[in-house]
Write a structure and sequence with these properties.
It catalyses: N-acetyl-L-glutamate 5-semialdehyde + phosphate + NADP(+) = N-acetyl-L-glutamyl 5-phosphate + NADPH + H(+). With 345 residues, the chain is an alpha/beta fold. It folds into two domains: 2-125, Rossmann fold (3-Layer(aba) Sandwich); 149-313, Dihydrodipicolinate Reductase, domain 2. 28% of the residues lie in helices and 19% in strands. Helix 1 (12-21) crosses helix 10 (315-329) and helix 5 (131-139) packs parallel to helix 10. The two termini are 35 Å apart. The structure holds NADPH dihydro-nicotinamide-adenine-dinucleotide phosphate and N-acetyl-L-glutamyl 5-phosphate. N-acetyl-L-glutamyl 5-phosphate binds next to strand 9.
Length: 345
Amino acid sequence: MIKVGIVGGTGYTGVELLRLLAVHPGVELTAITSRKEDGLPVADMFPSLRGRVNLAFSAPDKADLTQCDVVFFATPHGVAMAQAPALLAAGVKVIDLAADFRLKDRASFEKWYKIEHTAPDLIEEAVYGLPELNREDIKNARLIANPGCYPTTMQLGFMPLLKAGLIDAGNLIADAKSGVSGAGRKAEIGTLFSESSDNFKAYGVAGHRHTPETSAQLQRFTDQKVGLIFTPHLVPMIRGMHATLYARLTKEIDDAALQALFEAEYADAPFVDVMPFGSHPETRSTRGSNMLRLAVHRPDGGNTVVILVVQDNLVKGASGQAVQCMNLMFGFEETMGLEQIALLP
Ligand SMILES: NC(=O)C1=CN([C@@H]2O[C@H](COP(=O)(O)OP(=O)(O)OC[C@H]3O[C@@H](n4cnc5c(N)ncnc54)[C@H](OP(=O)(O)O)[C@@H]3O)[C@@H](O)[C@H]2O)C=CC1
Ligand SMILES: CC(=O)N[C@@H](CCC(=O)OP(=O)(O)O)C(=O)O
């Protein structure tokens, strides 16, 4: 059994980590922090965890995280970078669900997140926690930068096409929609029921911080300069993400070969489901599960490939992916504790 701590246990990704880790056979939860709820039993705040999590929240300065084997940061950007150096020095592995270590270019991080990086020495060491791209590096990592939810869909959709040199890398388009839980549990006008229900809108069209994250990662797979237009939208559902990705083919390939390319790429990826060519994945087929499903399309047999990608933003888009990384880092089966089937209807 490994000892696990969670910083930020009261937020949406924090409680999702608790849901997954409470029944993970290789894990003992030993510390869960909250600045505001020090001393409150976790199950008093989240009755879904009654009888499963018997700990109380502790204030961050009271929790002895150095006793843990691994600490997850389910916190806003900037928290993990302040605490990771001391934890790593004490031999504790760190998985950050925020963006502190996702961008290798410090200037780009500071531009997009508008905070100074206080642990720049760790940026190079951090491993980007997308197992389908970095499985071997994750196994040996001490520090994981867990990907953003939108970047997971975009990378897993575009990567096989880029690797095969089939598309114009300079003209990638991603039109993506997120459920409201993607914005976290903090109070914000835009996520009020009366603002976000029965409504649909784009945001961040002029530039979103997930564009540089996705472009930088995809750049590893092509010699062409990656150019990505990414438009996020907020949809009136609680969980779920749907990305529609467009790419222009630059080489001849038939539909069967295109499908075979994706199937071969993800043959050993337990959480990527390549659906039949031309099918229409639904977000509800992933709700509460760590599966990402995708389907390849080619409208009118032309030279535009459309990839449809769905996932649960809180599971494969955040906490499930973080547990998948933990499994790899500690030699557990990659799927351990992550085999939930999506909730229907
Ligand atoms: N929601 C999603 O779908 C996804 C989120 N992410 C990322 O995961 C991280 C967490 O997101 P989410 O769970 O949605 O956020 P929430 O706003 O729901 O939760 C944030 C948590 O962090 C704690 N917290 C806030 N500030 C501090 C601080 N300075 N020090 C210690 N703890 C703090 C809060 O607890 P308290 O106030 O009780 O201390 C709370 O538990 C973010 O970086 C987000 O960008 C990534 C992918 C998807
Ligand atoms: C719906 C919504 O607001 N979503 C968030 C993304 C959540 C997320 O994944 O944040 P990080 O990857 O940066 O950690 C947003 O667009 O800012």
